[in-house]
Amino acid sequence: MTEKKNAHTAQSTNVNAKATATKAKETAEKAKDTAGKAETTAKTAAAGAATTAAHTAHVAADKAQVAAGKAVATGRTVAAEAPKKAAAAAGSAWMMIKARKVLAAVAGAGAAAAGATTAVVLRRRAARRRRPLARLTGGRLGS
Hints:
Layout: H1 2-129, H2 132-136
Region (Disordered): 1-53
Keywords: Membrane, Transmembrane, Transmembrane helix
Transmembrane segments: 102-122
C-alpha cells in the first residue's frame, strides 16, 4: 500500500511539476514580451529626447547667430560714426583756438568801451555839481 501511495504521490508531484513548469514558461514569455515592449518604449523615448535636444540646440544656435549679427551691425555703426564725431569735436576746438584772439580783442574792446563810458558819465555828473567859475577854470578856482 505504501508503494501505491508513493506511486500516486510521485505521479501527483510529476503533474504539479509539469504545471509549475508550464506556468514558469508562460511567465517567462510574458516577461520577455514586457521586456520587448520596455525596450521599444525606451528606444522611442531616447529618439524623442535626441530629437528635442537637437531642435533646442538648433534654435539656440539660430538665436546666437542673430545676436551676433546685431552686435556686428552695431559695432560697424559705432565705428563709422566715431571718426565723424571726433572730427566735429576737433573742428569745434580748432575754431575756438583760432577765434581766441578775436574773442579776447572783442572782450577787451567791450571792457574799454564800458570804462570810457563810465568815465564820461562820471565827469559830466561831477561837472554839474561845480559852480560856474570852477567849471570855467576846470576846477582850479571856485570849487
